[in-house]
Amino acid sequence: MARVLSFLIALFFSTTVMAFTSFKAENFMDFSSLSGASTTWINELGSVMTIDVASDGSVSGTYVNNAQGTGCQGTPYVLNGRVTGNTIAFSVAWSNGTANCNSVTGWAGYAQVSTGNTLQIVTQWNLAYMASSGGQIQSGKDVFTYQPQIVQQSLLEK
Prior knowledge:
It is built from 1 helix and 8 strands. It is mainly beta.
């Protein structure tokens, strides 16, 4: 039984690690460079997004809002979007099984390599929501910084 359990755990970790290729920021040319890689980005307010870019330019992932003084914090929400070249657009509907803020946010932006060779996504966003006086749109800016991930070594290699 212990051998079977060890095999299943090893299989899980090896397939999880191999599901996406690792990405190195210095290899970034445009968003197609991320195809097949799952990447994590953090904005200046501590919110975290993880995106997966498909070869057709579609983007999927999750967004965890950590901005102080806002609702729908601390749990992942579905993120969907598109990329073309160095530009990206994505959106989040702020409703999941944990919370519903009855709002949506859309971001549009571009990738850049900043001072110190830091890979960033510079965006503008629009948040649409219903207030007591009716529909409202709030706007702002976010800069997301790429966070390299440490890929766990497969248990099969140990």
